[in-house]
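To close the section, here is one more complete example, presented without commentary so you can practise reading it yourself. The ligand is nicotinamide-adenine-dinucleotide.
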Amino acid sequence: MQQNIFSISGQQALVTGAGANGGIGHAIALGLARAGVKLYLADIDQEGLNRSINESRDLGGEAEGMRCDIAEENQVQALFDWLDSTGAQLDILVNVPFAFPSRTRPHLLKYADWLKTQQVSVTGYFLCCRAAIERMLPQKRGCIINIGSNAGVSALGRGAMAYSCAKAAVHQMTRELAVEYAQDGIRVNTIAPAQTLTPGLKEHIKNKAFQEQVLPKILNGIPMRRLLKPEEMVGPTLFLASPAAAGVTGALLPVDGGNLAMNAGGGQ
Ligand SMILES: NC(=O)c1ccc[n+]([C@@H]2O[C@H](COP(=O)([O-])OP(=O)(O)OC[C@H]3O[C@@H](n4cnc5c(N)ncnc54)[C@H](O)[C@@H]3O)[C@@H](O)[C@H]2O)c1
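Output:
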């Protein structure tokens, strides 16, 4: 019988930012559970984390979790110590969290907001990648998927500079790690969504000015003329984690309805 090259059943994954809030990490966690992956989930939000664990188990998956702020070195250390204590064998790491404390023109951006944005997306991803790679090296196998953004490729031009810079750093971290560990059986890739209908974006859309001024720009920049869905990040994640992507490392996979093909991060 031919092996199913898309199967990742039986593998084990850590997903950071996996809390059940209707966002991308939530969708990816449930998608991995459905694919038969044993889950270790982490999130700063304990309640959301508990719900994701329960929902994954309801799908028949094995899931455990630990609260963790990935921006804090000691908390990431504690997360991976806990993973070691469970005997986890880390095949897959997916990093999802981000921070976007304020939308403002760059000359008005507060130092604290700049720092917070970088601490979660850049430092947090680095800390999780570093700890995962330490564990993947001896097993000579592993797959890391970082969630980037179209904003890290093309300027949005609407008060998102700190976020865009952080996401560009995530893309470059992915490439550096991919090249550094290509001969160690560790693959590192980025998924770059365009604007996705998550709870955060739904909140923005409630705002009339956003709805009238920003949303049309966003949609104009997406050739499919619609927002992405969190569930649409699942298939690309499963693919990148699977043997079907054995030769794929250092890639940036846009899941963006054609946005980057138009080079239109901010919309027109
Ligand atoms: N939503 C979009 O339009 C969009 C577009 C492009 C890229 N992205 C990227 O997709 C990813 C997910 O976005 P989303 O909108 O689904 O986000 P979300 O806010 O819905 O989910 C992120 C999760 O991360 C958790 N989290 C936040 N800070 C954390 C920290 N310090 N440590 C651990 N967990 C933390 C949150 O509690 C939440 O559960 C982000 O990396 C974002 O940059 C989103």
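Once you have examined the tokens, check your reading against these statements. The beta strands are 12-16, 38-43, 63-67, 92-95, 142-147, 186-193, 252-255. The chain has one domain: 12-262.
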